[in-house]
Write a sequence for this structure.
């Protein structure tokens, strides 16, 4: 059998940076910077020049959901799998979970309001004005990826938000806040968050610096750092290092957004960014079932098929879904109207494992638009215990030994002991496809090697395993 590539080979340097020694240094630096950021003089250090207007409008935007926009305007706010009705205090409701608060303060939903039109559209400006008055909310407000999401959303919807601002007070306040938030993001984005959240921070910072104006030298330096981060996170076969199909969609969408900003500013797209988009789009196709939605591995959701279609269209990448993704660690068997997607890889490396599931060698099987064998997928909501349930081996299409996960899920959400070796072998003959794989995640505790074989006939009507 072919051994799955090592973490070093997979991460091309990214996983190593997230290793023990580097991780310790990063945590120490992060803790020191947190102390500085909490100081009374820190807000004063963020004061600086305020632009009179945006130098760039983002023309390419994602469609909003007018139904959700109308609900938000009416006080029914459902984000990150959690519904909060008429939040109180408005920007920091006590019962809301951290994921809901991150989405609420990220303002990614503001497109829903502007799309809804009428009173909901007018509500967009009111809510931004309210946030500007009361932005001393929970700590998650200033987490780098949340700041970046908010900055990008405000820039993308700027004219819609301020359209009724006749005395231009909201316009001036937004521009001042955007400038301040960008300074904060420039200081925290490279160390405060990791994984896909760090790429999101880069997106917000690049969009902000282009839209508010920055020197060519500083922007060029920022783009080089962005390319290095892309190289660390996007595998040679185009998969995201998290091995999470939902993250595949999010990261590809963020890269497309960043490219659109650069194009609007007539800035050449960095080679690393363009190549990543071209590799990631076929891998997004790889993870789609016949219903046009995503397979459920490593904390993934099915996601919206219409959005996936649009992301693939805007990627401008024509590559078809590969049959195997050896670097990311998945195999795909497709024939006739049947599709099987198998997790044949190691867990994500440290630093990218906070949402990883104990689902090694799990698979999903669909026929036409019907899913027949599936994993449970991610839990989104305020109850942390349910997230651990969804990550357990028992929530996947695998045999569980002694009610024990094949991968240890630690209390802090990261993964611990798991398979040291995952092997897989693939064969094809006259249209027939066969995959055999094994892992040793149970060997140390039970002396067992877990193995799985799957076969798909050339017409797709015969599945064996």
């Amino acid at each position: 059998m072919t051994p799955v590539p090592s973490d070093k080979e997979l991460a091309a340097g990214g996983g190593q940076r997230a290793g023990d020694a580097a991780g310790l240094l990063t945590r120490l630096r992060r803790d020191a910077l947190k102390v500085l950021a909490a100081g009374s003089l820190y807000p004063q250090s963020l004061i600086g020049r305020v632009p009179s207007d945006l130098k760039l409008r983002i023309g390419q935007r994602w469609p909003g959901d007018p139904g959700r926009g109308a609900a938000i305007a009416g006080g029914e706010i459902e984000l990150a799998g959690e519904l909060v009705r008429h939040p109180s205090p408005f920007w920091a409701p006590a019962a809301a979970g951290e994921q809901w608060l991150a989405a609420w303060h990220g303002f990614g939903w503001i497109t829903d309001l502007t799309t809804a039109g009428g009173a909901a559209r007018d509500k967009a400006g009111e809510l931004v004005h309210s946030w500007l008055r009361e932005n001393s909310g929970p700590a998650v407000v200033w987490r780098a990826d949340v700041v970046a999401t908010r900055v990008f959303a405000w820039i993308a919807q700027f004219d819609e938000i301020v359209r009724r601002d006749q005395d231009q007070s909201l316009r001036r306040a937004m521009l001042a806040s955007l400038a301040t938030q960008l300074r904060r993001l420039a200081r925290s984005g490279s160390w405060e968050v990791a994984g896909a959240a760090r790429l999101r921070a880069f997106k917000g910072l690049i969009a902000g610096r282009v839209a508010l104006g920055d020197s060519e030298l500083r922007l060029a330096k920022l783009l080089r750092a962005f390319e290095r981060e892309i190289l660390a996170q996007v595998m040679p076969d185009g998969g995201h290092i998290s091995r999470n199909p939902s993250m595949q969609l999010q990261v590809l969408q963020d890269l497309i957004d960043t490219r659109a900003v650069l194009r609007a500013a007539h800035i050449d797209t960095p080679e690393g960014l363009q190549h990543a988009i071209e590799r990631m789009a076929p891998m997004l196709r790889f993870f789609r079932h016949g219903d046009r939605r995503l397979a459920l591995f490593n904390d993934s959701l099915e996601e919206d098929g219409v959005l996936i279609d649009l992301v693939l269209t805007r990627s401008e990448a024509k590559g078809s879904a590969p049959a195997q993704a050896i670097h990311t660690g998945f195999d795909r068997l497709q024939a006739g109207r049947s599709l099987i997607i198998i997790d044949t890889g190691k867990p994500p490396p440290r630093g990218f494992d906070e949402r990883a599931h104990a689902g090694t060698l799990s698979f999903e099987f669909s026929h036409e638009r019907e899913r027949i064998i599936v994993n449970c997928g991610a839990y989104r909501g305020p109850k942390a215990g349910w997230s651990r349930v969804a990550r357990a081996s028992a929530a996947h299409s695998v045999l569980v030994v002694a009610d024990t996960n094949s991968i240890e899920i630690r209390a802090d959400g990261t993964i611990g002991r798991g398979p040291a070796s995952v092997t897989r072998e693939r064969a094809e003959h006259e249209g027939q496809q066969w995959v055999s794989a094994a892992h040793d995640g149970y060997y140390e505790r039970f002396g067992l090697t877990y193995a799985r074989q799957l076969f798909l006939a050339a017409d797709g009507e015969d599945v064996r395993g």
About this structure: Residues 49-193 form one domain.
